[in-house]
Design a protein that fits this description.
Helices cover 73% and strands 2% of the residues. The chain has 523 residues and is mainly α. The two termini are 19 Å apart.
Length: 523
């Protein structure tokens, strides 16, 4: 079983189970703080164990009865997932005006007297923290799996808690319910399709583990239609999770309707885990089919970049805008992955490096941006309407400067980590012979720059429409959205994301070296 190698995964899974017990044992008035601190400690312990595994490197370890691979690729993905999860725990633990972003009573009808009573009594759904740990368990298992059945288990453990938590938004509950229902139904279909693809692939290879699939492809067995059908169905399930076109339709609605801390967690954690699994499946199990999936994956990357960039231009809700940003970035991550097949092993290693670095830069900027979104509030709560952000930079320059930096990184402006990530992705694709994809990537980067800079202009140079209307009416009591006092824990997250985004852009060599380790044992 190799328990030492599996320890980070086991710690998180055990922490989720203990968190369920805390729901029954801890008094309600102390439960929220207890669960938040306990979850943070569990994530830190798991991260420390991953670091210890880094300090004692060894050959690739096959753990869990040979169903989980603990190698450099796994360790680098786990490190990123745990770091981002720790930031997400901080976001989930925030309470503004004494209330969190999650509904006080999910079982009550939105706007009912029961819900108002629960809110007045200070009720809270503290089980979001063990649910988050269950989801994190799936995120850790999904990219480390060495066979399709274990990957499917990781996919389901990852997804089911997210379906539930999406419906728990405190405000705009009907929108939250709609988002959860869409996410659940589409996610169930994609999981079933993934499992059907696993069954067809098993029929072709005689085994579900990646090495058996790779060996069967290498033998050139004659049942190619079965293989291609299985591979296509597997890709549907994987591309759905990364939010790539044409399986992206759930992303805008779910990101908009879910509680903002959960949106941040999904936008970063789910994408990192899903891309980790996608890379292992493509490079390890189906590397012998690279001549088949290279061009289609490049086309998917181009369509994903284009749709995310173009539709992002029309958005006025900043959470929905970030959703289309997430779709566009899924396309940018696919660029170096598609390019790996056109070059040698060294080229594939470079592709892995570029993909991992891009995911890290995207995760830092996205987590930081959602932290700022949580801080910008009006009298009813968060103010996601972009018009409410007008003139924010004049009133709160430091928070606005951090948001500007995150947007610049997402846009790929020089001196940010996002610029290095995008540069590496395009260089690898160019070396891999995908010049057409690089050109399209540059065009769509310029398109996406438009909606990122629109936010920056609104923040720094926009005149609040509410303020203007009040002035015309001779009433100065109405005010636009403002930034609440930044809690210490949330301020630390913002500072770390800001510093890492700058360091990753100005001194990228060390981080690039870490990212390059991810491909050295990928098998």
């Amino acid at each position: 079983m190799a328990y030492n190698a599996l320890l980070p995964l086991l710690v998180v899974a055990l922490g989720a189970l203990v968190g369920v017990l805390l729901e029954a044992l801890v008094p309600r008035r102390r439960r929220f703080v207890t669960q938040a601190w306990f979850t943070a400690v569990i994530v830190v312990v798991a991260l420390v164990r991953v670091i210890i595994n880094w300090k004692t490197p060894s050959a690739r370890v096959l753990a869990g009865n040979f169903s989980v691979s603990i190698d450099n690729a796994t360790l680098i993905v786990w490190s990123g997932l745990l770091l981002f999860a720790l930031g997400a725990v901080v976001l989930m633990a925030q309470r503004f005006g004494g209330v969190s972003s999650f509904t006080p009573m999910a079982v009550a009808a939105p706007g009912s007297s029961d819900e108002r009573t629960a809110e007045a009594e200070g009720a809270e759904h503290t089980e979001i923290f063990p649910l988050m740990l269950f989801s994190l368990t799936g995120m850790l298992l999904f990219p480390a799996a060495t066979d399709l059945l274990t990957a499917f288990i990781g996919l389901e453990v990852l997804s089911l808690p997210l379906y539930l938590m999406t419906a728990l938004a405190r405000r705009r509950r009907l929108l939250s319910h709609e988002a959860a229902l869409k996410y659940f139904l589409l996610g169930a279909f994609s999981s079933a399709i993934f499992l059907y693809g696993a069954a067809l692939t098993y029929g072709f290879a005689g085994g579900a583990d990646y090495s058996a699939i790779d060996k069967a492809i290498g033998l050139g067995l004659a049942r190619q239609p079965l293989l291609l059908a299985g591979f296509a169905l597997l890709m549907v399930g994987l591309l759905f999770k990364v939010g790539a076109v044409p399986f992206h339709a759930w992303v805008p609605d779910v990101y908009t309707g879910a509680p903002t801390p959960l949106t941040a967690y999904m936008a970063v954690g789910t994408k990192v885990a899903a891309f980790g699994a996608l890379i292992r499946v493509l490079y390890v199990a189906f590397g012998g089919l690279s001549w088949t999936w290279a061009v289609p994956l490049g086309i998917v990357a181009a369509l994903t970049m284009g749709l995310g960039a173009i539709f992002g231009l029309t958005q006025t809700n900043i959470k929905r805008l970030m959703a289309y940003s997430s779709i566009a970035h899924a396309g940018f991550v696919l660029v170096p992955i598609a390019a790996a097949v056109a070059v040698t092993t060294v080229g594939a290693l470079s592709s892995m490096t570029a993909a991992v670095y891009y995911l890290a830069s995207y995760g830092l900027a996205t987590l930081g941006a959602f932290a700022v979104i949580m801080l910008v509030r009006d009298g009813t709560g968060e103010a996601p309407n972009l018009a409410s952000w007008a003139g924010l930079g004049r009133r709160h320059p430091w928070v606005s400067a951090a948001m500007t930096l995150f947007l610049c990184s997402l846009a790929g402006i020089p001196a940010t980590a996002g610029f290095i990530g995008k540069l590496d992705a395009f260089v690898v694709a160019w070396q891999g012979g995908l010049a057409w994809l690089v050109i399209l990537g540059l065009v769509f980067s310029l398109v996406a720059l438009g909606f990122y800079m629109r936010i920056v202009l609104v923040i720094w140079f926009g005149k609040p429409s509410i303020e203007r209307a009040a002035a015309e009416a001779g009433d100065n009591t109405d005010q636009p959205a403002d930034v609440v006092k930044v809690p210490v824990s949330l301020g630390i997250v913002l500072a770390l994301c800001t510093a890492a985004t700058l360091v990753g852009g100005l001194f990228p060599n060390y981080f690039t070296h870490l990212a390059s380790l991810a491909g050295q044992m990928l098998r």
